[in-house]
Amino acid sequence: MMWIGSHAPSFLLPWSVTDTLRFSTHVELRAEGKATSPAAAARATGRSSSGQSRHVVRSNAANARSVGDTSTGGSVLAYGFAMEMRLMRPNEYGTVRKLCVSSFGDPSIGQLLDGLRASWAWDDALSFVACVAGELVGQALYTHAFLDTPSRLVDALVLSPVAVLPSRQRQGIGAALVKMSLEALSERPEPLVFVEGDSDYYQRLGFEQASGLGFEAPSARIPDSAFMAVRLPRYEQWMTGRLVYSDPFWRNDAVGPGRDG
Ligand SMILES: CC(C)(COP(=O)(O)OP(=O)(O)OC[C@H]1O[C@@H](n2cnc3c(N)ncnc32)[C@H](O)[C@@H]1OP(=O)(O)O)[C@@H](O)C(=O)NCCC(=O)NCCS
């Protein structure tokens, strides 16, 4: 799996406004806390820019507040530009693939993406992109997986990969994309999202250590602290057990911190 931070492998593998994306979300990323956009002004009044109520997502990042509305719009105050989150369009796959390869600096991520896209695990409704000024700058991909519980298989989701264009990294885009997409997923039937990666980063985005919730990692190679989960509204307490990744993660040797990790 592709990780960041202290778990980063030396061998990196590892939501329609569709066009009318139901979950399309517009965020404003501003350097200082002066809100001037319609969405930001709406935030001050507790209404979305379209006048509807909204969800509020708070970021722990210093001087960043995010206000996301999964159906109408929202804003994140942080870095001085506007970002839109929407579902990837089918004809954007090549662009997203290139973006991921360049973010990770490793072509094998492209093979993993190809494998996932060709598999049962892929779902067009789970591939989110971030756009700034019309340019695709980030991706948060969720794919299908299983939770092998004592009583039956439960459908679950895996977040991987998350990627932001190198020139756009560390500007709040990755965090906004993950938080907004998780909000969008709250309407899905799957009860859980799992991720493998840097605990400091993902815990800030709402993930919890999975073992503490009764979940077993799909591989013993995944350190306990690196295996995390988000419980979605459909989660029920009896849902415990081992996460089962889809085939492409195994076939692309993209499980755990990497061969040299
Ligand atoms: C990881 C990634 C998706 C984060 O997106 P981003 O938009 O750059 O991150 P944000 O601006 O939302 O958050 C920044 C914080 O993330 C953490 N972070 C980002 N990149 C990091 C890295 N390479 N190593 C460690 N921490 C990192 C830091 O805590 C950083 O805060 P700081 O700048 O104050 O130190 C992006 O940097 C990326 O595409 N990296 C390459 C691919 C990758 O590793 N993907 C994640 C594994 S699936």
How would you describe the overall organization of this protein?
With about 260 residues, this protein is an alpha+beta fold. The chain has one domain: Gcn5-related N-acetyltransferase (GNAT) (Aminopeptidase), CATH 3.40.630.30. Helices cover about 20% and strands about 30% of the residues. Strands 1, 5, 6, 7, 8, 9, 10, 11, 12 and 13 form a 10-stranded mixed sheet that branches. Strands 2-3-4 form a 3-stranded antiparallel sheet, with helices on both faces. The longest helix has 13 residues, at about 175-185. The radius of gyration is 18 Å and the shape is globular. It starts with 16 loop residues before the first helix and ends in a 10-residue tail after the last helix. Mean pLDDT is about 80; it is low at about 5-20 and about 30-75. The protein binds coenzyme A. Coenzyme A binds near residues 103, 104 and 171.
